[in-house]
């Protein structure tokens, strides 16, 4: 992580857009797995396998999208490795569906525990840059539901499975603040600070007006125009700043939405387990 270049981008002005687009499918995978699963159920292992198989099929396109991002966009070797490990857990679960081998399931849990520790270390480190932090939070929120799916496939008493699942759900909720905050900062970073430019309005004066604007994903967005004698410069400047802040808040909410859905799903599951 010496260069802190998370993504390969052709235009640096699109960097934060690319980061936001990269992290979204990972957080979405987590919420898809958790939502609708009958966690901690009394159903037989065969029925739980059928249910989890259905969920894995539902996220197939998201996994393909995530893997494509890994192959095309990631520039940093450690995060490429962690991403590959997370996607490898999903592949191993699909392998278990075919073989139903206890050895495969044991490997899923063991390997995912190691990856979990590595990712958690980056999340907890104060030295992790924002773009990496959001990406690692997305990987974490993807990995833990995959681990939960693995625990659900254990042929053990339901109370033992409940305890394992509950621990993973609690770990998801524990990173709520940092995950949502990092995603919001990524989204908001897509919007530049408010900018101003003067233009000649009346050559006879000469009278100069002021345009207010921002760059959003390298595209200019107008916030208003001040023309002398037709308005108050400071009032229009303040209104333009408010508009800029509203756009940034919208982009922040968009980036954080997949994380909120995954964490809310974890909270609901915790309540269900009791």
Would you mind describing this structure in some detail?
The chain is mainly α. The chain folds into two domains: 199 residues, no CATH class; 55 residues, no CATH class. 68% of the residues lie in helices and 9% in strands. The chain contains nine helices and three strands, in the order ααααααααβββα. β2 and β3 form a beta hairpin. It is elongated, with a radius of gyration of 23 Å.
With strands numbered from the N-terminus, the spatial order across the biggest sheet is 1-2-3
Secondary-structure element series: HHHHHHHHEEEH
The total count of strands amounts to 3
- Shape summary: elongated
Number of domains: 2
Assign a percent range to the helix content: 55-70%
Kindly name the structural category.
mainly alpha
Spans of at least 5 consecutive residues whose pLDDT stays below 50 are none
Instruction: Please give the count of helices.
Output: 9
Percentage of β-strand residues:
5-15%
Distance between the termini: 41 Å
Largest sheet, if any? Answer: 3 strands, antiparallel
Mean pLDDT: 89
Indicate the radius of gyration in whole angstroms: 23 Å
């Amino acid at each position: 992580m010496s260069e802190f270049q998370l993504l390969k981008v052709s235009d640096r002005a699109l960097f934060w857009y690319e980061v936001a687009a990269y992290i979204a499918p990972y957080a979405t995978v987590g919420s898809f797995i958790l939502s609708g699963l009958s966690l901690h159920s009394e159903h037989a292992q065969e029925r739980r396998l059928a249910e989890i198989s259905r969920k894995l099929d539902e996220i197939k396109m998201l996994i393909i999208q995530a893997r494509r991002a890994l192959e095309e966009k990631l520039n940093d070797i450690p995060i490429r490795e962690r991403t590959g490990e997370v996607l490898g857990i999903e592949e191993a679960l699909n392998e278990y569906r075919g073989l139903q081998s206890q050895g495969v399931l044991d490997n899923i849990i063991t390997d995912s525990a190691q990856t979990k520790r590595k990712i958690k270390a980056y999340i907890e480190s104060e030295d992790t840059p924002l773009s990496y932090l959001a990406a690692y939070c997305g990987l974490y929120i993807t990995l833990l539901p995959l681990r939960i799916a693995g625990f659900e496939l254990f042929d053990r008493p339901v109370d033992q499975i409940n305890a394992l699942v509950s621990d993973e759900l609690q770990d998801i909720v524990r990173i709520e603040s940092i995950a949502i905050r990092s995603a919001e900062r990524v989204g908001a970073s897509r919007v530049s600070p408010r900018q101003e430019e003067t233009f000649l309005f009346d050559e006879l004066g000469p009278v100069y007006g002021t345009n207010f604007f921002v760059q959003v994903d390298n595209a200019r967005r107008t916030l208003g125009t001040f023309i002398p004698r037709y308005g108050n410069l400071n009032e229009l400047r303040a209104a333009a700043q408010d508009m800029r802040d509203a756009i940034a808040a919208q982009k922040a909410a968009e980036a954080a939405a997949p994380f909120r859905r995954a964490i809310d799903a974890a909270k609901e599951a915790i309540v269900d387990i009791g």
